[in-house]
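Support request, please re-run this one:
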Amino acid sequence: MVSVHHQDTDGMGIQKKNCTWLLVTHDPCVKGDVMTALKKATGDAVFKFEPFVLHVLCRELQDAQLLHSVAIDSGFRNSGITVGRGGKITMAVRSTHCLEVPLSHKGRLMVSEEYIEFLVHVANQKMEENIRRIDRFHKGLELALEAAVPADTLFPEGPEKSHSVYVHRRKRRPAREQADPSRELEPQDDTESSLGLLAEIMI
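Re-run finished. Output below.
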């Protein structure tokens, strides 16, 4: 995001709380946009470029670690993980390629138009790089999530549900077959017994 904002100052040069946004855009800008915005400035105007920022509340630490790894690989070098007192895990995706330059003081322009044009060019370059990093992060996250195998893919409806479905499919042997220990298992019975053992192990 590219922006120009200004704040009024008191007699001691200390900025007041009120901040007025003179220009805000998520698209590349031109010098004329900045010059038009500066005409409305009565305090100290600042030109800023702010890169992509994302805060994600994670259920598990390993989820935050996965996001952090993808963010770092995508160029968001200032990303980090914080754990609150209550155990709340937050993963912040941040970058370092920001830009903040003062342009005027008490409404008076302190730099040349040529310098403003240079700043706009630099900000637009940073915006292009920001978009590339976002795209890398998005694609990298998709690949990371595809590679991870969540537990619910084994039991989409929960272990209890899966177990009940299996039990419903099992066939009870007639009493006379169970009483004859010498009887060999037929292929169908043998397959079901093997599946039963596998299901009990997985559960």
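Confidence is low (pLDDT under 50) at residues 11-16, 159-179, 181-203. The first strand starts at residue 2 and ends at 9.
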